[in-house]
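Postdoc handover notes: sequence design on the structure in folder B. Input tokens:
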């Protein structure tokens, strides 16, 4: 079976609309002879004469009348596909975006982001899902529109990234803990009872390496899989949680936070998305909303920060 020539649809639409080879040729900027050849090809492809002579003009056959509306719709749809995309109007946008985020992001940055999105696009919904790993499959298969977190080694090479902010690790204890008063030294910090945080069950990380360079070692009492669990334990015990400062701001409002007495590990929190979404106007708008919401929240928090 021969591959159909879809250019003939445009020709057929012009012929059926104009009812004249000459006018159809003029509309498509073709010569009358070229249009006559195209009509011959259409007759062969459809098995119908389509237009037949009646006096000095042409009239459509029943088959042509049957095809006229369908052909016109098809041509309109093709032209819409190939036409440059219209400018996005967020107020008319109806869409649900799925965002995969690490712990603390929704609590800290979610209110600003939701308020911004709701103000600009009231019919848009945000669906937040947890980020149990750094696998890029959800971005690749389209189940996640946008991810916020730290870029990992397992991230697909095609994934686009944009840094949002740098975050440093700090110590957190309950108010009234011995470390909530007095000068915090590396030795004093290391001598406490600590919570290790690892999704993969690893009890040693950058904090331990920094302490080792000072000839110190901390005592790990328990291990949890996320920041929320670590802070919940530290809130009601003598344990010390070491967590990212900016990401966990909303999770530790009622606790005492302190700067680590050595060079703290730092991470870059980034936006991640798949290239197929890069040019989508709605997705581009959402990325801008996330950037602006984070920047606004961090600017507000910087005026209230009480950590040295």
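Designed sequence:
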């Amino acid at each position: 079976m021969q591959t159909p020539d879809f250019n003939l649809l445009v020709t057929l639409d012009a012929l059926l609309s104009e009812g004249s080879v000459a006018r159809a040729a003029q509309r498509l900027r073709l010569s009358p002879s070229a249009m006559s050849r195209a009509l011959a090809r259409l007759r062969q492809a459809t098995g119908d004469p389509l237009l037949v002579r009646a006096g000095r003009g042409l009239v459509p056959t029943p088959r042509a009348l049957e095809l006229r509306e369908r052909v016109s719709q098809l041509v309109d749809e093709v032209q819409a596909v190939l036409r440059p995309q219209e400018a996005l109007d967020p107020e008319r946008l109806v869409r649900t975006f799925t965002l995969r985020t690490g712990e603390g992001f929704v609590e800290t940055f979610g209110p600003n982001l939701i308020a911004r999105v709701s103000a600009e696009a009231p019919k848009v919904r945000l669906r937040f899902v947890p980020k149990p790993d750094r696998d890029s499959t959800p971005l690749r298969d389209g189940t996640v529109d946008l991810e916020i977190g730290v870029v990992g080694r397992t991230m697909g090479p095609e994934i686009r990234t944009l840094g949002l902010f740098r975050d440093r690790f700090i110590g957190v204890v309950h108010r009234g803990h011995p470390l909530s008063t007095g000068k915090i030294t590396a030795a004093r910090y290391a001598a406490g009872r600590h919570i290790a945080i690892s999704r993969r069950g690893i009890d040693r990380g950058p904090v331990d390496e920094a302490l080792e360079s000072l000839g110190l070692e901390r005592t790990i009492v328990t291990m949890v899989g996320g920041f929320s669990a670590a802070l919940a334990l530290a809130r009601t015990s003598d344990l010390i949680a070491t967590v990212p400062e900016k990401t966990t701001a909303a999770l530790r409002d009622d606790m005492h936070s302190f700067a680590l007495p050595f060079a703290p590990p730092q991470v870059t929190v980034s936006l991640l998305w798949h290239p197929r979404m890069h040019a989508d106007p709605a997705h581009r708008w959402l990325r801008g909303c996330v950037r602006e919401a984070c920047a606004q929240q961090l600017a507000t928090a910087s005026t209230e920060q009480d950590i040295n």
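Context for whoever picks this up: Residues 281-302 form the longest helix (22 residues). Don't rerun without checking with the PI first.
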